[in-house]
Amino acid sequence: MANQVESKIEDFAFDYLKNYYSQQYATGNILVGQNEKTKRGNTADGMLAFKKPTGEAFLANISMQQSSSLVGMLINYKKNGLGKLRLLTPLVLAMLCFALGKTTGNVLVMLIAPIVVAPLGFMLHTYLLKKYRYRQLETLLNTVKQAPADEQWIGLSISSLVLRNNTLAKTLLEMCQQKGLGLITVGKRSKIVLLQRPQNKVSRRSDYLSYYTSEATIRRALNEDHVLRVA
Predict the structure, then answer these.
(1) How far apart are CA 96 and CA 118, in angstroms?
(2) Bridge-partner residues for 38, per DSSP?
(3) For residue 213, how many other CB atoms are within 10 A of its CB?
(4) 8 Å CB contact between 156 and 185
(5) Which residues contact 176 (CB under 8 A, 6 or more apart)?
(6) pTM score > 0.85 for this model?
(7) Buried b (16+ CB within 10 A) or exposed e, 104-136
(8) What gap in Å lies between CA 219 and CA 181, rounded to an integer?
(9) What DSSP line would sit under 186-201, residue for residue?
(10) Membrane spanning segments where (predicted)?
(11) Which residues in the chain come in under a pLDDT of 50?
């Protein structure tokens, strides 16, 4: 029996998305590719391409390279929150204020300043840590958007327990929604969970296939109506 703990999104994402788009567009001819290069040198971890009923080419990408980084951040936040180091900030500031007041002989600085400065330092440290986590998420999600597609997905190998009551996971979902990214996860039971649907984007060109080096090969396969797995 397979070890459920070792479920990886790479083993499930393509079949899930093929079924997803088959139902959305009533098509069975979906091409699947991996590590497809754009003409600007970026890489799409996974690609699904097919013709819509109207005859237009449709392209969906899924990014999985960011999975380990995102999962690591979410697990660490679930266990440690913003960390205990920030708890030392008010203590250090209070000691500095006390030492400064004692050195200068200023009773107000020695006794009153720590009461004011310590909580302000704690709040500032907390704010900066939240901004840092936000920037980390934003950087990873912006990397996903560098591979153009009608719809873009992120796939994570993560337990649902890590996402539960996790404010960083909530922030991730909100950012995915803002950026129009879809999000799917697979956990210990090897079950794909759809957490966020992607937004459909309109290409500035004829379609998004024109951004990829394998454009001609994919168009030919679509026109020939052959089911093809592009390596």
Answers:
(1) 10
(2) 212
(3) 12
(4) yes
(5) 141, 154, 182, 183, 195, 196
(6) no
(7) eeeeebbeebbeebbeebbeebeeeeeeebeee
(8) 25
(9) E-TT--EEEEEPPPP-
(10) 85-101, 107-129
(11) 1-5, 227-231
Distance CA 212, CA 115 (A): 60
Phi and psi, residue 172, nearest 5°: -60, -45
Backbone phi, psi, residue 204, to 5°: -75, -15
| Angstrom distance (rounded) from CA 44 to CA 218 | 14
Structure tokens that stand for 224 in this block: 């020939």
118 contacts 91 by C-beta, under 8 angstroms: yes
Instruction: Report CA-CA distances (Å) from 184 to 57, 95, 127.
Output: 23, 48, 29
Closest CA to 96 of 84, 110, 107: 110
Closest by CA position to 142, among listed 168, 193, 180: 180
Q: What is the DSSP letter of 112?
A: I
The Cα 144–Cα 62 span in angstroms is 8
What are 63-104's pLDDT values in tens digits? 988 888 899 999 988 888 877 777 777 777 777 777 877 787
Q: Where are the beta strands (DSSP E) in the chain?
A: 31-37, 43-51, 57-63, 151-157, 181-186, 192-196, 229-230
Question: Do residues 47 and 32 lie in contact, with contact meaning Cβ atoms separated by under 8 Å?
Answer: yes
Cβ atoms < 10 Å from Cβ of 77: 19
